[in-house]
Amino acid sequence: MKAVKKFFKLEEKGTNIKTEIIAGITTFATMAYILAVNPSILGDAGLDGGAVFVATALASVIGTVAMGLLANLPFALAPGMGLNAFFAYTVILVMGHSPQFALAAVLVEGLIFIVLSKTGIRTKLFNAIPLTLKYAVGAGIGLFIIFIGLQNAGVVVGGPTLVEMGSLRSAAPAIALIGVVITIVLLVRKVKGALLIGIILTWIIGIIAQLAGWYVINPDAGAFDLIPSAVVAPIPSLSSTFALCFQGLADVFKDVGTFLTFLSVTFTFLFVDIFDTLGTLAGVASKAKMLDEHGKLEKADQALFADAIGTTVGAILGTSTVTTYIESAAGVQEGGRSGLTAIVTAFFFLISLFLSPVFLTIPGFATAAALVVVGVLMIEPIRSIKFESYEELIPLGMTIISMPLFYSISHGLAFGMISYVIVKAALGKFKDISVLMWILAAIFLAQMILHDVF
Asked: Is pTM, for the whole model, over 0.70?
């Protein structure tokens, strides 16, 4: 135990083993949905769902362990939402490329990431983001998490006004809101492990609702059985996706057009992943008070390198881009401050390979409660913003509102950076705008105009 405390510097970080374990379990519980969602999305594009499940779990384990050991940070990694949709629905189904072509693009993206991380370029990008925007990103991610949680539970649905409230006569939305209330009560009563307890209690209420006939199983509508059919199940084979990316590399050079398309797809993955990761690190780190007075994150190089490792290994195993998860904020809220939180999260991803019937029955409405509460709490860092100052308020507002509206962390960061540069330039405060900020704002603006990414 002493060795563990010393290695992860628990006393220096003001935490302990029990807190880190609870934080790790909580982080896993809030992002375990990816074990069900990712195989479904990539399965739509022709990949074997069982193999993708294994690839998803193993890539999450490797990336998260790398984060814990190399960076000693409480952040977890898994195949990113949004990036997996681009992988499946755009690159494969719309553009007509093969799964191996898409996986090859992810592999090359990961290798480029490794180079960028080792040269310190990604850290310079992180440090180039002004402290004001880092606080704004944290709050924006908070709203984004709330939106995701409410969507997962069916509380927010599509409608004539684009989004509207779902019917609370349905079990899932109603139970989700009950779960939010339970979690809030536990939190304000300062019950340790409030988020995890809230998830479990909400799940139990769902099981009772199923047994009572209120919650009706309907897989076509996303309402799955809440009672595990078994505890242990055989691990699916990885053979259909493992090393498939290398086959894709051979097809890239067959003609100039294919090669240019490959470059475009690869850099789209690269661009979105860079700024999703930077935004997530900035937001969650600000919530955990891990940023220094200059807005810099200790061991950012190692954190970004771990992210690159996850993406590269994930491509080889057979899944889409692995990235740092905003759900890491749930563990941070529970007090997670070191890499031990990440190691615990990775452990549960590992055992999920053997206990998939149990973990895959945790419904979206149960984890929604934790996501909503965490999202609300993540808004707190903006109290450091000077609201009477337009040069801080405008970038703040643009960043916060863009993330949930455009369903993207990188979109919010883009609007925040562009508005920051515009406001500072309008005030003649050119010294406040670094060369890198000018470049990033220009790139974001060009991407918007050309619709290459946005």
From this structure: yes
Model confidence over 380-439: pLDDT tens digits? Answer: 778 878 788 888 899 999 989 988 888 777 778 889 889 999 999 999 999 888 888 898
With H, G, I as helix, E, B as strand and everything else as coil, classify residue 413: helix
Q: What long-range pairs does 230-234 form, CB within 8 A, spacing at least 24?
A: 230/357, 231/355, 231/357, 231/358, 232/354, 232/355, 232/357, 233/354, 233/355, 233/356, 233/357
Distance in angstroms (rounded) separating the CA atoms of residues 279 and 128 = 12
Look up residue 229 and give its DSSP letter.
Answer: S
CA distances from 80 to 186, 218, 314, 320 (A): 30, 26, 11, 7
Contact 104, 254 (CB under 8 A): no
* pLDDT at residue number 274: 77
With both helix axes pointing from N to C terminus, report the angle between 364-377 and 131-153 in degrees, rounded to the nearest 10: 150
Could you tell me the two tokens for 274?
């860079």
Tell me how far apart the alpha carbons of residues 176 and 165 are, in angstroms, rounded to a whole number. 13
C-alpha pair distances (Å), 398 with each of 49, 113, 134, 427: 38, 28, 13, 18
| d(C-alpha 228, C-alpha 342), whole Å | 26
Token code pair at residue 114: 């490794």
Residue 82, phi-psi category: left (phi > 0), alpha (psi -120 to 50), beta (remainder):
left
Asked if the model's pLDDT at residue 453 lies above 50, the reply is: no
Average pLDDT value over all residues in the chain: 86
Q: In the Cβ-directed half-sphere of 194, how many Cα atoms lie within 13 Å?
A: 22
Q: List beta partners, residue 165.
A: 156
- Gyration radius (Cα) of the chain, Å: 21
Residue 230 gets the label, from left (phi > 0), alpha (psi -120 to 50) or beta, of beta
Residue showing tokens 């880092």 = 134
| Contact present, 41 and 88 (Cβ < 8 Å) | yes
Distance, in Å, from the CA atom of 82 to the CA atom of 227, rounded to the nearest integer, reads 29
Distance from the Cα of residue 405 to its chain's centroid: 17
Q: Give, as one character, the DSSP assignment of residue 170.
A: S
Contact residues for 248 (Cβ-Cβ < 8 A; gap 6+): 98, 99, 100, 101, 102, 103, 104, 105, 107
